[in-house]
Amino acid sequence: MWRALLIDDEAPARSHLGGLLATHTDVEVIGEATCVSEAAELCEKLHPTLLFLDLQMPKGSGFELLPRLNIQPEIIFVTAYEQY
Prior knowledge:
- The protein is built from two helices and six strands, in the order E-H-E-H-E-E-E-E.
- The strands form two sheets. Strands 2-1-3-6 form a four-stranded parallel beta sheet, with helices on both faces.
- The chain is an alpha/beta fold.
């Protein structure tokens, strides 16, 4: 079972992704975060095994989360920006 955390500043993006993941019985969405600091706190508290991580958010890049992690989840980067 994958324990997924959705990290994106856009509520519609989190909602859409959550809806897509709801059809997968091997994925449990355990939380959502809107910025890097919130994501870091949730990662420490919830120990997700899978992150869906937005790259560009108003309060920092998704890349800024990586050195703050004390866990090693699988990461799927999500973004609406073509340059990524």
